[in-house]
Structures are given as structure tokens and as C-alpha cells.
Amino acid sequence: MTRLPGVSGKQCIRALERAGFKLVRTEGSHHYMRRVLPFCQVSVPLHRSLKKGLLHGILRSAGLSVEDFLKLL
After folding, report:
1. Per-residue pLDDT tens digits for 13-68
2. pLDDT level of residue 1 (50, 70, 90 thresholds)
3. pTM score, whole prediction
4. What residues does each domain of the chain span?
5. Which superfamily does CATH assign the domain made up of 9-72 to?
6. Listing from the earlier edge strand, what are the strands of the sheet with 22-27?
7. If you write DSSP's letter for every residue of 15-70 in order, what string do you get?
């Protein structure tokens, strides 16, 4: 299993945009992103570094594997 690198919120958002997600709205420091087909919505906080568990949860919600996410970075 591939380990996740240290990723900031902005880097995560850029990778999700490459995966087809679009910014829907912003509330405080959280950015809500949505993909139409297949439908999926995730919330990404703009922290300097996302903790491993939080990043895994975002990837699980987005339907991305760690390997796919690393290719998008």
C-alpha cells in the first residue's frame, strides 16, 4: 500500500479539480467540491497540512484510491 505524502488543502483541491471536481461554494475555510458523473460531493478544509485520516476520508468520499490521487498531484 502506498503512503500518503504531506498535502495541503490547496494541493488537495487542485488534485480534485484534475479528477473532474468543480468548486460549488465556500463556507469559512472549507471548500465544497462536486463532480456530476458519477455524482459525488466532498468538503476540503484549507489547512496547511491535512492529517492522514482526514485525507483518507476525503479520498474515500471522492471514490479515489491513494495511487490515483498521487497521479493527480
Report:
1. 999 999 999 999 999 999 999 999 889 999 999 999 999 999 999 999 999 999 99
2. low
3. 0.88
4. 9-72
5. Hypothetical protein. (3.30.920.30)
6. 22-27, 30-35, 40-45
7. HHHHTT-EEEEEETTEEEEEETTTTEEEEEE--SSB-HHHHHHHHHHHT--HHHHH
